[in-house]
Sequence to fold (117 residues):
Amino acid sequence: QVQLVESGGGLVQAGGSLRLSCAASGVFSAADNMGWYRQGSGKPREWVATITKLGITTYLASVKGRFTVSRDNAKNTVFLQMNSLNPEDTGVYYCNARWYSRGDNAWGQGTQVTVSS
Fold:
């Protein structure tokens, strides 16, 4: 069974930075896509960023230029470097990984990111 374990959330002041990590276990092949979603209080979960196995990245418009998603295929790990954080970035951040041939779509448990003004 695929499991995703996240780390790196916390409290930071506006303008600060955080780096999230997410490691997949229980599977030997690299995920086709890995990425991040977030959910603010009282808001629906929204997609933030995705990186393919080949390293192609896409971003939510509001984080482009501030956030960078990267991955280590050998370790099945995905990272999210978040710079110039603002209070609107506050929320629970969830890691996601998909293996299309296997039909697996895994989620992490979520990690809280709080940006104070």
